[in-house]
Each structure stands twice: as structure tokens, then as C-alpha cells.
């Protein structure tokens, strides 16, 4: 069997993190989210893949190549225009034969669920029981037969949602060619399912575990999920008087300096300098070539490669892009005084603690304060002592 993974989209809800990378290449636990998905499918027994790429596709091609490094075969199809999921799948026509697995590239799923799903007959859609079904397409079934698929509704008909995992045979490509543009101006894969539903051919299969990575704060959930399952791997140097409580991955060439306290699970990439006297708290993932320095506290955050947070800083429950530099004394708040869920642009994150999303190459002067739920665009420069909140567009200069 072959597996098609849709990885062509920009992921606009992830901006500014996708300003120079495709969404599926955003790191989770120091690996691109697409790599986690690929490894899960490989563990389920599939070794032949088609990646549908488009936006910044070369980053995906350069990283995964032909699949040899992963012990599999990867072919590529390019979606030349960003015209929806049906259009993306149609790009893979001719590269698959008979029955195949289709996955959206921005999910976390267990290999055991994939193995169980592969025992179903095509066409089949994977479903999941959600606590907030209004954010997804809801699947209404009678037994396993799908009766209705309702896209995002404020009053959903149940809590079983479409998880973006499908079993199809090549008949689907003929259906895709008959579709019209949706109200959003795209060719929607869910529209292609209507014929199957009308003829009572579409079945559903409930997954035990699934995580969608649609918004930046979902990265923290995925990061935490992936970091619960690794063992210690120490390739770098740990100086004397370092205290480590919990699992740690430390990359080659990295140094943890004296006086540092680490609460695992924690992943630190290659060629990093941590400390002295840093405090790294659980579920933090630090990319390659980073500096987390003296008296800096980092909690439950994702730090992209080549970023410096070197002196008297606090970063909690945040996602920080690559090439950033935080001036001494800069802090990111992660908790509202009223203890209500943090909102970003008015959107509820469903998280009581969430700090900020910071784009690439952001330079913050000394003693800057960043409020909860802030989004800072790429290449932003903030003067010393700046107070930053709300949404800051790319290339903005804050303060004098």
C-alpha cells in the first residue's frame, strides 16, 4: 500500500512561523511535524510514500530527499496552485495504484491507530471524539456508515469529527475532476465525499488518539505529546553542579554549564550553550545552535534553531522562531491575572497559560515586556523597555 501525505499548504493560521517555511516543517520536539507523521506511518508497515508539496516545497524535498535515509521510497507531486485539498490530492494521480492511505500533513497520530485503520475497506474516513467539535467538520454516522458530514458549525450535530485520514482507491480521482469551486474558492476534498455518502459507501473508523496542529498554540500540545515517549540520549557535555530531574536529550557539541537546573522531559539540539545558572522546565524543546543563558528561565516552550535568550529572561508557554535575540531582562507573560483562557486576536486558545508567538529574526532590546497572547511578526525590532502586545506585523520597529 502507498501513503499520500498532503504537505503543500502554507498554513496561514501559523503565521509568522510559516513566513519562510512550509507548515509541515515547523519543529515539534526538534523534528519537523511531517517527520513525526512519516515515522508513525512507517511503523505501521507502509514503505511507499507520495508527498504533495507546493509552498516552499524545496525545504521538504531537501530534508526528506527520496526517503533513503528513512528506509522508504518517497515520490513527490507538486500542487502548482493553492486551490484546496481536492486539488492537492489530484496532483498525486498516476503516482498511486489501487487502494491508498491519505493523510493531512499536520497531525499527530499513533502507529497502532494507523494499523487498525488500514484493515478497513475503502472508502473510509478516520474520526475522533473531540471536546470542541465546532472547530472541525463533524461526521454523523449510523453504525459505521456515514450519513452526513457537516463542516465547521457553531451548533455541531455531535462530537465525532473528521480527523483528516482516509482510505481511498483510484476511483476518487474521477470524482475529484467533477468538483466545482466551493464558497471559499477552493476544490474541497470533503465535497468529493458527498457522492459516497449519498450512496452509503463511505464508512468511518474511530481513532483512539489524534492531535490536529492548526494553530501555533497547538504546537505546544503536540510537543508535550511527543516528548513523553523518549529515553535519555546524552551526546554533549554536562559540567559539574548541573542538576537534571527527568529525561533529557542533549545534542552533540552542546554544553550545559554549572548551576543549571533542568526538569525533564527536555530536548536540546546540537551546538547549544545552556547556562550557567539557567532553569529549563518540562517539555521545552531547544533547537540547534541556541543559547539559553545566565539566570534565564524557560518553561514548556519551543525554541527554533539559532536563537539567543542569554541573560535574565523569562519565556513561558511560547513558540519562538529562528534567529531571534532577546535583550537582558526581557520577559514573556503567560498567565492572565483573571486566570481565564488566553486569547490571540480574540480567538480562544483553550489554554490557561500561553505566552507569545515570535517570528524569525526578531530583536528585542533589554527589559522588554511581552503580554500574553501576543504575536510578533518576523524581523521586528523593539527598543529597550518596550511593552508589546496584540499582533505586530512583519518588519515593524517598536519604540524609538
TrEMBL record:
Mannose-1-phosphate guanyltransferase C-terminal domain segment(s): 262-377
Sequence ranges assigned to domain Nucleotidyl transferase in this UniProt record: 4-226
GO molecular function, one term: UDP-N-acetylglucosamine diphosphorylase activity
Enzyme class: transferase
Metabolic or biological pathway, per its Swiss-Prot or TrEMBL entry: Nucleotide-sugar biosynthesis; UDP-N-acetyl-alpha-D-glucosamine biosynthesis; N-acetyl-alpha-D-glucosamine 1-phosphate from alpha-D-glucosamine 6-phosphate (route II): step 2/2; Nucleotide-sugar biosynthesis; UDP-N-acetyl-alpha-D-glucosamine biosynthesis; UDP-N-acetyl-alpha-D-glucosamine from N-acetyl-alpha-D-glucosamine 1-phosphate: step 1/1
Catalytic activity from the UniProt record: alpha-D-glucosamine 1-phosphate + acetyl-CoA = N-acetyl-alpha-D-glucosamine 1-phosphate + CoA + H(+); N-acetyl-alpha-D-glucosamine 1-phosphate + UTP + H(+) = UDP-N-acetyl-alpha-D-glucosamine + diphosphate
EC number(s) per entry: 2.3.1.157, 2.7.7.23
Keywords annotated in UniProt: Acyltransferase, Multifunctional enzyme, Nucleotidyltransferase, Transferase
Family listed: In the N-terminal section; belongs to the N-acetylglucosamine-1-phosphate uridyltransferase family.
Stated name of the protein: Bifunctional protein GlmU
Organism, scientific name: Methanomicrobium antiquum
